[in-house]
Specification:
heterodimer; A: 180 residues; mainly alpha; Rna Polymerase Sigma Factor, Chain: A; 2 domains; 9 helices; 0% strand; B: 272 residues; alpha+beta; 5-stranded antiparallel beta sheet
Chain lengths: 180, 272
């Protein structure tokens, strides 16, 4: 059964359907959260919150507005970004940066194991973007920076960053469109 | 043009669609943009398309979650009620204020009865899930200045939930009011919520106590009112129960009245 059908059953209080849904989406949710949050323990906490929120608010999912997986990953991304920003605000940034070297190695191991078609396509399509488009998009999406922070880091005007983000996303759509 | 004026400028708001889709707006900007979205159909369509694009970036990140996470999430799900959906006719089993949709009910005028009889349930039930439910109510309701507090609390609660020995329990009195707890004996932590006790007259607070055999009650803190859960730390393993009393503002060093509710902790791993 697809995530969309399961989510509708979950909205009706079906715990068995939730177990199946967990099987389908826990990997994408956890992977995305960990990519943004980095710290494994915190990633697990955020993922748990997201999955529980999924159970609670499944009734808010509107199938007319997109796929269940999109809805779920959008929720997961929002929560992951909130967490990474509050951690930064709390001054944990340095600690986190120090951990990064370690986790990059960990990421690579996982990537080797899972080197799936989708991963390869995304990477290929990201490679086709201009450097500024790619950096603007990935600093925001994978690292949780606001567009103002991205502008600062890349020493670009705000307007330029906004445009690069839009162009980058549109190019990705063209490149990845066929594999949806 | 001032920064603020620019932010409100329509053209400029449009250009925020891509950063919005990437979750790259600051919270205040996000709120402003979402307000704008409600009145701009073209923007909503564009944001939807850009958001779908952004989600493609998540395709490449899937990774197997820790095995133990599954049991924890499924246990939490069993203990957590759902919020009403968009179209489903569903009456929440909890008072509306718990969901954050209404202010807490006015103080009940009913005269104080004899001490109610409480039935503790060994397993997690809907009332125990108040802990989790009210956490999300807090989040849904949060205003900007409450953001940090809500996040800190959410982290503390997630921490308790994440403990391998986290257990839920609940007590209900004859009038349907309840106390819910999710506790971890190994962490010595618990998240406690009250439901149905309404507001107190000014100058009075609900105070939580830890009860141990042959030891005076120890204060675990004051409930902030409404649906806000109380996170209690440094719980002794020998604790036998939790108790709530009504105390003067600021709390008391020792209880000055009969508990209005008590909950045994044995089923959540305490009392050795």
């Amino acid at each position: 059964m697809e995530a969309d059908e399961l989510l509708v059953l979950v909205a009706g209080g079906d715990q068995k359907a939730f177990e199946k849904l967990y099987g389908l989406v826990s990997g994408p949710v956890f992977g995305l959260v960990r990519r943004v949050v980095r710290d494994p323990a915190q990633s697990e906490e955020v993922s748990q919150e997201v999955l529980l929120e999924l159970w609670r608010s499944a009734g808010r999912f509107d199938p007319g507005r997109g796929s269940a997986l999109s809805w779920i990953l959008t929720l997961a991304h929002r929560r992951a970004v909130d967490r990474v920003r509050s951690a930064r605000a709390a001054g944990e940034r340095d600690q986190r940066e120090a951990r990064r070297a370690h986790h990059t190695a960990f990421d690579q191991v996982t990537e080797e194991v899972e080197a799936g078609l989708e991963r390869e396509w995304v990477r290929r399509c990201l490679d086709r973007l201009t450097a500024l488009q790619r950096q603007s998009v990935t600093l925001a999406y994978y690292d949780g920076y606001t567009y103002r922070e991205v502008a600062e880091r890349l020493s670009l005007p705000l307007g330029t960053v906004k445009t690069r983000m839009r162009d980058g996303l549109t190019q990705l759509r063209k490149c990845l469109g066929g594999v949806a | 043009m001032s920064l603020l004026a620019r932010l409100f400028h329509r053209e400029d708001l449009h250009s925020l669609a891509a950063p919005y889709a990437l979750d790259a707006l600051e919270p205040a900007e996000r709120v402003r943009f979402e307000k704008h979205l409600k009145s701009c159909d073209a923007c909503a369509a564009e944001v939807r398309a850009l958001s779908e694009d952004a989600v493609r970036l998540a395709w490449s990140t899937a990774a197997p979650p820790p095995v133990a996470m599954r049991d924890r999430v499924l246990a939490a799900v069993r203990a957590t009620p759902q919020e009403p959906g968009l179209v489903r006719e569903h009456t929440p089993q909890l008072p509306p204020h718990v969901w954050g949709t209404q202010p807490p009910p006015a103080r009940s005028r009913a005269p104080r009865e004899r001490r109610p009889f409480f039935v503790p349930f060994a397993t997690a039930t809907a009332a125990a899930a108040l802990v989790v439910a009210s956490l999300f109510a807090v989040q849904a309701n949060r205003t900007q200045d409450k953001l940090d507090a809500a996040q800190t609390q959410s982290r503390e609660i997630a921490h308790v939930l994440a403990a391998p020995d986290a257990r839920a329990s609940t007590g209900k009195d004859t009038r349907g009011r309840s106390i819910g707890v999710v506790a971890s004996a190994s962490e010595g932590q618990a998240v406690v919520t009250l439901s149905g006790y309404g507001g107190l007259s000014s100058g009075r607070v609900h105070q939580l106590w830890l009860m141990r055999p042959n030891v005076q009650p120890r204060s675990l803190g004051l409930f902030k009112g409404g649906d806000t859960p109380l996170v209690a730390t440094d719980l002794n393993k020998s604790a036998t129960s939790l108790a709530v009393t009504v105390e003067p503002d600021g709390g008391s060093p020792q209880p000055t009245s009969q508990p209005i509710v008590q909950l045994a902790l044995k089923s959540v791993g305490f009392g050795e």
